[in-house]
């Protein structure tokens, strides 16, 4: 049995914020479908004038969808030992995805790569998860002993 610290609530709220992010990105694609007249089941736009912008919006949402599973896993596991740090990394990642969603609509190619700092946040979450795994296996002592306890 695992006992969580009270601070794990931050991790839970960060996970909920990621659901809001996905809803926001889906809504953005829905609005772009209306704006650029791309009807379902058509996946991408072939319009020479506006198709590129719609396709970038769609790809941004797809990239976030591909990364949400590793994000949620590392957030939840890394948050066992480091709830505040994991939540901070998680919120940074979420904000970077929102920045990326706005930047992908820009005509300036330099702005289209904004939001890439979210990869640093994923690396931080990965390292938090590794530390939690080492503590669970007993390979190292917890940095913060009262964060969570294991009972057999």
UniProtKB/TrEMBL annotation:
Its main location: membrane. It comes from the Eukaryota. It is a multi-pass membrane protein. It is found in: Membrane. GO terms for biological process: leukotriene metabolic process. GO terms for cellular component: membrane. Keywords: Membrane, Transmembrane, Transmembrane helix. This is Microsomal glutathione S-transferase 3. The lineage of its organism: Eukaryota, Metazoa, Chordata, Craniata, Vertebrata.
């Amino acid at each position: 049995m695992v006992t969580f610290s009270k601070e794990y609530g931050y991790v839970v709220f960060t996970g909920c914020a990621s659901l809001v992010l996905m809803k926001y990105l889906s809504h953005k694609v829905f609005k772009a479908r209306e704006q650029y007249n791309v009807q379902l089941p058509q996946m991408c736009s072939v319009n020479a004038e506006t198709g590129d912008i719609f396709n970038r919006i769609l790809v941004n949402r797809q990239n976030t969808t591909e990364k949400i599973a590793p994000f949620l896993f590392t957030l939840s596991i890394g948050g066992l030992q480091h709830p505040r740090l994991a939540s901070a990394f998680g919120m940074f990642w979420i904000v970077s995805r929102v920045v990326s969603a706005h930047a992908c609509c820009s005509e300036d190619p330099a702005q289209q790569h904004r939001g890439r700092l979210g990869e640093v946040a994923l690396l931080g979450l990965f390292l938090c998860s590794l530390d939690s795994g080492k503590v669970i296996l007993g390979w190292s002592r917890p940095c913060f002993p009262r964060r969570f306890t294991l009972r057999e």
